[in-house]
Amino acid sequence: MKISIASGKGGTGKTLVATNIAVSLASSGSGCVTVADCDVEEPNAYLFFPQRTLLVREECSVPVPVIDETKCTHCGKCSEVCAYHALAVLPKIVLIFPELCHGCGACTIICPEKAVSETTRSMGEIFRAESSNLEIIWGELALGEARTTPLIKAVKERAGDENVIVDCPPGTSCSLVESVRGTDFCLLVTEPTPFGLYDLDIALRVLEKMNIPRAVLVNKSGMGDRKVYEYLEKKKIPLLMEIPLDRKIAELYSRGETFVEEMPGWKAKFAGMVRQIEEMIS
Amino acid sequence: MKQIAVVSGKGGTGKTSLVASLAALAHGRAVYADCDVDAPDLHLILQPKVIERREFFGIKRAFIDSEKCTQCGSCQDACRFAAIVDFQVNPAICEGCGVCKLVCPADAVKMSESLAGYAYLSDTRFGPLVHAELFPGEEASGKLVAMVREIAREQAAMRKLDLILIDGSPGIGCPVIASLTGVDLALVVTEPTITGEHDLERILDVAGHFGIKTAVCINKYDLNPEGSGRIEDLCRERAIMVAGRLPFHSSVVEAMVAGLAVAEMGGPVALAITDMWNVLKEQH
Questions:
Q1: Given Cys at both, which of B11, B39, B66, B144 links A199, Cβ 3.0 to 4.6 Å?
Q2: Which of A169, A202, A223 is opposite residue B171, by nearest beta carbon?
């Protein structure tokens, strides 16, 4: 089973929940658990496993065009066909802007002189590490890169299908869609504040559109107001867990520790929640 | 005209609460732009009255006319994004490149753009706000950010206001780059947690990559004095000014629930934000 942890709003506790679920599952005799960190812009989950051993570090390569200037007649067709403005044809040279290129191959297909071929370039790195019976896979977008989806796809491909917890990026657009796609269930982490509720509503609409089974976890409960609870009741969306606003949890998190190790009563709660999710989708 | 973008790397460090307070302090002298188009929250505090709505069209997407389609499979073979299955385009996967249209021998593919959201120009108690709504799951948030900033520049020029305050999104990718290009200052909000520190370095590197001047604001600095110390050291090494140190205080959430800016509520965080605002005004 693959469970994605998402939120809409940033900083609601996605990574906190993803890492603590993973640790709880791994110590409940469920075999090896994989954390797939798809927040490739700011990957953080691995920071909570300081004892990790790095197994693999590889480049994430995407295709990009190269122009053979000896064949090119500077007709401009490649630039016209490019939906991403990644090519500019000047009278004597073709300029390529690799960060804008989606690697679709349209320029190669259209060129009447067969002057366009493709090479690859790195747009980030993929890491795989282990820490006792946990596997952590994450992607790290190279600085200045705008597109995240190829790297998110690469992270998910490497994570397999069994016992996978996907830590998603914040937001509600293409990065979120790519991260939750193909997961069996999405747990949305929110906080009981007006900002948390507003963004939760948008994220829920994305999941509804994608037809992914979903439920909510309220983190930092006790702060803010009651509106998120009223909303969940009205929309009939299951609330699976509340994690209280607790100074000890916040301090452990701030130091990069998974709080279930220090507060072991929570391990059974997280493992129980995963069983509940299994029942919901079976 | 000066443009200041408030960004963070890590989400939830307090960008929007800070921008709302800076808006309260800049009162009537600036245009505000909510560039976190994925998860816009600034309007919850600024409570805008919409003056104008503009349509936003995202990327073009392919559609296959099943009557013309001969099911030859050329498009499925050529699509690099695996967006075509059983001679139908999945619009959630299509990136709008048009390769399917190029290779189709039966002229069965049309590219068309669809409404993907709106940009709004509004009035608020602190001055004009430009904000947006991106439909759930849409692409091209960077393009919508560019549209919001363009309207904000128009408004600033028209109303002779010399500051644009931008509320950015978390991360370092497409919408963040679109929020940062050409700004005079990126004010990076961080918090003293291991994840906050890690993400701060990445966003400072990105701002450096684009040659953008930065200043740092440490939010909840008193929650982890050791971590705050490491952030101060990092800023010193990189010769980046720490413009503000905001304490952890319940007034931030209380203000949010009341629909007010922290600066309107008063209290220790409001005072610290006012100090930071004065520092920034002196510097810029």
A1: B39
A2: A169
Q: Do B223 and A254 touch (CB under 8 A)?
A: yes
- The complex's ipTM works out to 0.93
* Contact status of A223 with chain B (Cβ, < 8 Å): yes
Q: Assign a CATH topology to domain A64-122.
A: Alpha-Beta Plaits (3.30.70)
List, for residues B126-165, the tens digit of each pLDDT value.
999 999 999 988 887 899 999 999 999 999 999 999 999 9
Answer yes or no: do B175 and B268 share one domain: yes
Summarize pLDDT for A192-238 with one digit per residue, the tens: 999 999 999 999 999 999 999 999 999 999 999 999 999 999 999 99
Percent of chain A with pLDDT over 70: 100
Q: Does A231 touch chain B (CB under 8 A)?
A: no
Q: How many CB atoms lie within 10 A of CB A129?
A: 19
CATH code, domain with B179? 3.40.50.300
What is the 3 state secondary structure string of B10-45? Answer: CCCCCHHHHHHHHHHHHCCCCEEEECCCCCCCHHHH
B44 interaction partners in chain A (CB closer than 8 Å): 194-195, 198
Determine if the pTM surpasses 0.90: yes
According to DSSP, the β-strands at B241-246 and A87-89 are unpaired
Which of A:156-195 have CB within 8 Å of B?
A: 169-177, 181, 193-195
